[in-house]
Design goal:
Helix content is 42%, strand content 15%. By secondary structure, it is of the alpha/beta class. Helix 3 runs parallel beside helix 4 and helix 4 runs parallel beside helix 5. The longest helix is centred in the middle third of the chain and has 26 residues. It is globular and about 50 Å long.
Length: 308
């Protein structure tokens, strides 16, 4: 397995005539860059988000760059499992194979504890449970495509994360950054466990994790708030953050490179993985605990109301 990938960019994405990619949270930020790059390489892309107008605006932007782009929008709210089920039902009724699922959408550090429609802490419920449920419900369509990939986006914040089974929903104590780190650690552990489960059950799905380093998106502003410490850093010190087009590269590498490997974690290669070009990222020790990973998998199935 190669440890260094030489300055890989979106220009290295293999061109293809067919292929359906489904991307959550793709009307802006990293997800938008994923949609733009994939559609420019011939993929049929379903962009997903909560706001139909933002979806239409994003498609228009992509069409300006590539008038022949095959892009469409589907409304979904990952903080509402009924919305996830409705989307999956629409997809399954069409029966088209899904070649690539990118679990990208995220909520980051709201200052007050908020809950999803199903009563989960917002970050854990959206970032992890919503994507867990979506992946399970799209599994039949993913299995239709030989070598389908699921790329789940984590964060360098997972290094500080711990899965607290006694308080998964942060009801006893809510600390924004702590809850975010737990959710992003859960994203990584899900990606790794999905690969193990695929190998165990012969699903033929390749599951890969990626993270964007520290990138210039609106995630901090919409989550923590523009006038929070992180929000002000994002607003007034933009040079601290790499451009979102650069931050998207590890995800795109995991999604498209023939050299990307299932069960591996990719991120930027410079400055403690905060910026740079795609490379193999270090998996924090807590994400390597197979017992915790399997327990999280089983509990997540119960919370999401799904079975793989």
């Amino acid at each position: 397995m190669q440890n260094e990938i030489k300055n890989w960019t979106a220009s290295n994405i293999p061109q293809r005539e067919i292929g359906l990619a489904v991307i959550t949270g793709s009307t802006e930020g990293i997800g938008y860059e994923d949609a733009l790059a994939l559609s420019s390489s011939g993929w049929n892309v379903i962009m997903m988000g909560r706001n139909a107008q933002k979806g239409a605006d994003s498609i228009a932007k992509i069409k300006q760059v590539n008038p022949r782009a095959k892009v469409s929008f589907e409304k979904i709210d990952l903080a509402d499992l009924s919305s996830v089920r409705a989307f999956a039902s629409r997809m399954n009724s069409k029966g088209q194979a899904v070649d690539l699922l990118i679990n990208n959408a995220g909520v980051m550090t709201p200052p007050k504890r908020l809950e999803t429609a199903d009563g989960f802490e917002l970050q854990f419920g959206t970032n992890h449970i919503g994507h867990f449920a979506l992946t399970a419900q799209l599994l039949p369509l993913l299995r239709k495509s030989p070598g389908a990939r699921v790329v789940t986006v984590s964060s360098v914040a997972n290094r500080a994360g711990k899965i607290n089974f006694d308080d998964l929903q942060s009801k006893s104590s809510y600390v924004p950054g702590k809850a975010y780190s737990q959710a992003k650690l859960a994203n990584l552990m899900f990606a790794l466990e999905l690969q193990r489960q695929s190998e165990k059950h012969g699903w033929g799905i390749i599951s890969i994790a990626a993270h964007p380093g520290v990138s210039r998106t609106n995630l901090l502003i919409t989550g923590a708030g523009r006038w929070s410490g992180p929000g002000m850093a994002r607003t007034f010190l933009p040079f601290l953050f790499q451009p979102s087009v650069q931050g998207a590269l590890p995800t795109l590498y995991a999604a498209t490179s023939p050299d990307a490997v299932g069960g591996v974690y990719y991120g930027p290669n410079k400055m403690s993985e905060t910026r740079g070009f795609p490379s193999i990222a270090k998996i924090p020790v807590q994400a390597q605990d197979l017992g915790v990973s399997l327990r999280l998998w089983e509990i997540s199935q119960e919370l999401a109301g799904v079975a793989f």
